[in-house]
Amino acid sequence: MVPFLRPRPPSLRDLGDELGSIERSGIFTNYGPVNTRFETALQDGLFADGGACVTVCNATIGLMMAIRAVVERADAGRALQPDRSTRRYALMPSFTFAAAAMAADWAGLTPLFCDIDEHDWASSAEAEDAMIGRHGENIAVIVPYATFGNCIDLDRYERLSARTGIPVVIDAAASLGSLDGFGRAFAAGCTLPVVFSMHATKTFSTGEGGVIHSTDLELIRTLRIMGNFGFGIPRSATIPGLNSKLSEVGALLALSRLRDFEAVVAHRDNLARLYRALLPDLVFQEIRGTRCAYQFMPVLLPARFDGRRDEVIAELLARGVGAAAYFAPHVAEQPFFLARGVAGDLSVTERISRRVLSLPLWDEMTDGIVATVCDALLAVCRRDRPAEEPVAARLPPPGGVAGWSGQVPAS
Ligand SMILES: Cc1ncc(COP(=O)(O)O)c(C=O)c1O
């Protein structure tokens, strides 16, 4: 059986000494020394841009706080205060996970769903512009998603925010480890708050956790205070707050994840390139940066499978391959958001959501396992077509695919 996901957080057994040190220190949370070491190591090692990072207990809470912080700040700077008797919008794609829409709802906003680009599956600039044109002043925040770990154009969002005065929070849940077009860590140099997840199923796998990065040091300071009950002065709330702190044990897992992270992302990137090479007739997401920290491998089924994806997943399972359907249903069609969200034209979202298939991609996967998955998928897709040579027999020679490791298939 090839599982869809196989989370591999750092080995707890190997952390015995460091766990003992936490116990002896008597400091278990409250932005303790291990948390500080992790934030510094991430900031200096990955982003190195004069910005800062603050950890959170998960990315959903991180999104909730970041949305609240930027909206409050933008409102405070307005000459005319917004009418608080009406709910305002958080503009976001519907082709995403429910977390950003939930975070907006908890921040008192209504998700306003826009369509995605048909190539990179992130919010389309045209769809966003159309929504801003239509709803203007009523949009309190824009929350784009760096879809499936891909990079998105952060400079465009900085310009959009400067032009419209609408703050932006980036949902980059799966993008820790992705590299932008200049080969820098995604989010490096960006003033906008970029929220990453460290959930067990992410490439930066820990358990539960997240981190927010920005070069806006004042904003990171505010988020740190917000995450500690809004205590701007000792035991006294000065701003809205909640408890978003990562425990010292969680921070230790994150710190130890950093040690082998580069190799983890590089291996996943190689596997993704092999998928693309072995499935040349299928459509994949267009990658915007120089490296994507794939959480799994998304692909579009051929058009004739529109509406039949569940059949494909069941047949793959019968052949020993786990697969999933992210994101189907997309957020706007989920019952809570049918009632609580507002959607524009979502025709690309709907087309992609009906055909998208998520294939296995995990740290211990080999090239041979990728070939096994591809063979199973092609066999399912070719039921009504003549049989062809299995892809396992067509694995390219070492060096034949850019970035492919040339590992011998597992027998
Ligand atoms: C796009 C997206 N945003 C946010 C989240 C929330 O992350 P967390 O589980 O750390 O709260 C997820 C989780 O899978 C996600 O996929």
What can you see in these coordinates?
With 411 residues, the protein is an alpha/beta fold. The protein has two domains: 13-255, Aspartate Aminotransferase, domain 2; 263-394, Aspartate Aminotransferase, domain 1 (Alpha-Beta Complex). 38% of the residues lie in helices and 11% in strands. The chain has twelve helices and 13 strands. The protein has helices at 16-25, 33-47, 59-76, 98-106, 125-135, 154-164, 217-226, 248-278, 309-318, 335-340, 347-355, 367-381, and strands spanning 52-56, 89-93, 110-114, 139-142, 170-171, 194-197, 210-214, 231-233, 236-237, 283-284, 297-300, 342-343, 356-359. The protein has a four-stranded mixed sheet with strand order 1-7-6-5, sandwiched between helices. A four-stranded parallel sheet has the order 4-2-3-12. Strands 10-11-13 form a three-stranded antiparallel sheet. Helix 3 (59-76) packs across helix 7 (217-226). The longest helix is centred in the middle third of the chain and has 31 residues, at 248-278. The chain binds pyridoxal-5'-phosphate (PLP). Pyridoxal-5'-phosphate is lined by residues 58-60, 96-97, 99-100, 145, 171, 173, 197, 199, 210. Pyridoxal-5'-phosphate (PLP) binds at residues 58-60, 96-97, 99-100, 145, 171, 173, 197, 199, 210.
